Structures are given as structure tokens and as C-alpha cells.
Amino acid sequence: MADDYILELDDVSKYFGTVIALQGVTLRLKRGEVHCLLGDNGAGKSTLIKTLAGVHQPSSGAYRVDGEQVRFNSPREALDRGIATVYQDLALVPLMSVARNFFAGREPRRKMFGVIPVIDMNYANETARDKLAEMGIRVRDASQPVGTMSGGERQCLAIARAIHFGAKVLILDEPTAALGVKQSCNVLKLIHNARERGISVIFITHNVHHAYPIADSFTLLNRGQSMGTFAKRDITKEEVLDMMAGGTEIQSLVDELEGRAA
Amino acid sequence: MSAINESVTNMIHSNRAKAPEEAASTDERVRKISPWRVLLDRPELGSIAGTVLVFVFFGIFAGGSGMFALDGVINWAQVAGYLGIIAVGACLLMIAGEFDLSMGSMIGFAGVMVAIPPMYLGWPLWASVIFAFVGSMALGALNGYLVVRTKLPSFIVTLAFMFILRGLTLVLSTGFANSTIVSGIGDKFTEDPVVSALFQGTTLHWLFSALAGMNLIEKLPSGDPVVAGLPKVLVWWIVMAVAAGFVLARTRFGNWIYTVGGDANAAKNVGVPVRRVKISLFVLTAFCACLFGVLQVADVGSAAADRGLQKEFEAIIAVVIGGTLLTGGFGSVIGACFGALIFGVVQIGISYTNIDSDWYRVFLGGMLLLAVLFNHYIRSRAAATK
Lengths: 262, 386
Known about the structure:
Chain A is of the alpha/beta class. Chain A has helices at residues 45-53, 75-80, 98-102, 121-134, 151-164, 181-196, 208-214, 237-243, 246-257, and strands at 5-16, 19-30, 34-39, 60-65, 68-69, 83-86, 109-112, 116-119, 169-173, 200-205, 217-222, 225-231. Chain B: Keywords: Cell inner membrane, Cell membrane, Membrane, Sugar transport, Transmembrane, Transmembrane helix, Transport.
């Protein structure tokens, strides 16, 4: 059965000195599903994804990829196993062109005059343009700076790049946090798109309205502990919201504001 | 609302025959950029405009003075060449987001590294030239290592080396030569055919003679051209500029330089070896400074403790006039070369005019300020869009 899961964290804890960042968290990502990781600020979401991405090593517990126990010493090693993380800062350089950003660190090369290795800019431009087009973003000219793109487009560029370089698991850190309604919608479409291609996605957010439509299952984190994983059919949006720390608190705030305070 | 969007999108697409239907969403609309805007986005535009400006200025005020005669041209081109060599190195380093304030002191230090061993320790000149290059590059690597290791601003680390190297230059020259000038090295250059061929005097003599023979360039009463040949410093400048420009624009390492300067954290996250890139560029600036020093020692025939004073600032000014951002991530080698050219033309040109040459620095400061304002405008346009 373990083979159903592409990524598994089993009873993982992470301590930073005296601070317990994660305590006995279990997270199982099925092949080809969109798994939403929900939690308020300080719930341990960042630590969890950094553990998945190979930035942190678990203090205890097991991390399995394709059923095989792993211990990543660097993000590079996780990347080599097809686990790509798109952080909130996107790792894009605004002043550089779309194509140069797309291939930064992994530039395609050809030999000029048969000897001098140069970047194959034609290939880079065409590939960047095509891959973005597949994501529904039209770039007329892949040599335009990324700075001219909208936040949503940049998010899509970062995701398209991860997919192009062979991501089997995409970890998206709050991809909709800084976006407007329409742009968030585009990113959600893109996540759906990735799932269609058989890519498994971990989608970190604290916005249930973004998470609920796209997710197949939810894991809720609160104060470093998992409150459980739920399939979408077993839980309603309101229940998810309630389980997040904010749910009851917002309700009591609403009550208070409306003069119904107990 | 959507009708308006559609008509706008249609307008945008109207001149492109096969605009795909799915592009017609407001969020992903395709912008049209006029050729003028594309030109404005080039980093070197400001420096080219500046160059035209200074040429027009001196054309008016010094047109008849011989400044634009062949010997005059070689005169200011040589000044530009020296500065251009270090500006090329400074340019790549600044695009990668760091400074090297020790370049000027490195010029002086490289000079004594070349001059002292043959004069006082009995070394052959070729050995001391190699020693100077290896020594400078090792110091550059140390600069770079300290910067990436301590994560201190390179401004401070290289400022320290600016003083350390200047002081060492003085200590060594007074210690060995009992003077701030180490003289007599010019003869050693002339005696060494290889080193002389590489760094001393001029080249392409046959071309200049031939041109003089065809009356295409001015010649002396004897029939020889007024200028014997192309100074080696200009050859080196061109070689360095072409090589650096090529690396920056076309190679993987060039892309890494841009990425590191644009956002070092992003560069690390996409797997660019940030430290290696930065250290190699500090080595490059040290190499350029040493090249400057060796060429100057070969030309003047001596090394001196005050050589290259303030050259680091002149290099930075040339680079900034050339459109490179002080914060890194954007710039061009061609721009830096035009920046150096402006320097040469202004510094030499002002003595051809009736203007008091004391105004030289005022003029340069003004150029710098204008260039920075211009670059700031470009950057805010390129990066501020969200």
C-alpha cells in the first residue's frame, strides 16, 4: 500500500534548540493528488515544507519518497528526486528576461564554431515561450524582463519552470498569497493543469477559499501538530475553516462586533 | 466591461495576423512595446548619448585645436584605454552586485611587484610579471573569499584592502628603492622581447606606415606617420572588452553573473554557485588592475607608490555612466567602455579648450549624477511593475 504514496512523512518532529517546530506530524501525498496544507501563521507550515524540500532534516521520524526512506542534505538532492519547491519569493530576478530566468542555473548550451560553449538563446526563448503558453500565458517575446510581468504570471513562470525541469512533486508555498482574485484563479487553474499531467502537488495556504475548490485532500496544522488529513468528500469548507485556528476566533469576533458577546 | 477588454485586446493583436484566441484574457494580454521603448531599455543608451554629447561639446569648443587629429585621438584614446581595462572588470563585478575599491591600490601594488624583483632581487622580468599577475589574482581571490565568507559588504572589505595595498606599496618602494618611485625598469622591458611585445609601446606599425604612405593619416616631414602605431593598451582594452562582453551576453557564466547580482538568494535557490561566481569576479578585477599596472610601468618605465590613485572611483563612475546599476543585476560592458571613453575625452579634451581644466572634476561629477538619475528611471520602469 505504501506504493500509493509518492511522498510520506511519518511521525516527523523537528526541533530548533528548545523550540518544537513540528511534533509527530504525518503527511501522506498520493500520486497525482493536490494536497492542501492549511494552517495559521506559526503553525509550522514553513518548517514542514523546508523539511520536504531538503532544507531541514527531521529531528525524528521517517521521510519516504516512493516508499524508500531518504535523508536529504540539501535542496539540490530533493530536486534531483523530482521534488521542486516554489517559494514565495519565486527565485526570479525581475531585471532579467523571461528566458534567462527560466533557465537560470540550468542554461541550455551549444558550441559556437564547434568549440566555445554558449547559451543556446534561441532554444531558451522558444522553450520558455512554449512552456508558458502551455500554462496559458502568452509571452510575445521571451527576452522581455520578468519585471514587466504581473504577480500571477511570475508565479506561473516559476511553476512552469519547476515542471519543465522534471518536477514529480510540486511544493507551492502560498502561491496565491499576494495575488488578486483573477490572478489567484489562474494559479489554481495551473495547479489543476499540473495534476492533469500526473504531477502531485502540495499546496500551502491559509486561504480555505483557494484551497477547497482545487484540493483532493487537506492536512491541517496547528501549533506544530497535525490535526489530521481529510479527503475532500469527508469534509465541508466550513468544517475546514472551523478547524483552522481562525474559525472559532473569527466567529467570536463577529459575535462581539455585532454585540452578541457572551 | 468584457466588451471593452475584448476591443482593447483586438487592438493589441490587430497587427499580428495569427493572434491565438486564448490570448484574449485581460490578465495575460500581450503588451506592445515600441522600438523606442526597447532602445530605452538598453543599459548602454545613457552612455552612448553622453558620448555623443561630449563629442559635440568638444567638437564645438576644441574642434580646431588638434584634439581630433590622429595624435590627439591616440592621446585621449589611451587615457580611455587604461580606464577601460579596469572598467571592464569593475563592470562584471558590479553587475554581480559587488564593488572592488582596492583596484586603484592594486594598480600601484602590481607595479612594485613587477619592478622590485628585477631591480633589487635579480629576477628576470618575465618572472616578476607572472609573479605580479599571480599575486594580484591571489589577493583578488582573498578579497572575494572574505566577502562571501563574512557576508560583509564588499564596500568595507575592499576599502580595507585599498588602504592595506596602498600602504604596502609605499612600504615596499621606500624599503627597496629608498624612494616612492622605483625607476630603471623601462630598460628591462625593452630587453625582454616577449614581455615587451605583450605590454610595451605600440603595434600595427605596418598599417600606420601604409596609411601614411597613402596619405590617409597625417605624417611627419620625414614621411613617417605622426603616430607610429596603435598603443598596446588599446589592443588590451579591445580584447578585454570583447571577451567580457561575450562572456556576459552569451555564456552560462554570464547568465550566472546577472542572476547573482539580481538576487543572490534566488540564484542560490536555482543552483547557481554564488560564491564561486563572486570570487572569480574579484579575481578578474584584480587581473584587470594588474594589467593596468604592468602596462603603465612598461609605458612610463617606472613604478610609483601613487600609481592608480582614485582609479577605483573612476572605474566605478565609468561603469555607472555605462548604465550598470549600483545594486547589480543589470548593466553592459559596452556601456562601461563608453563611460571610459567619456572620461578620456573629457580629461584630455578640456586642456584643448579655453576652459580651465579645474572644471574637469565638476564635469565628471555632473555626468555621474545625470547617469545615476537616468539609471534610476530605467530601473523603476523595469522592476516596479508588479
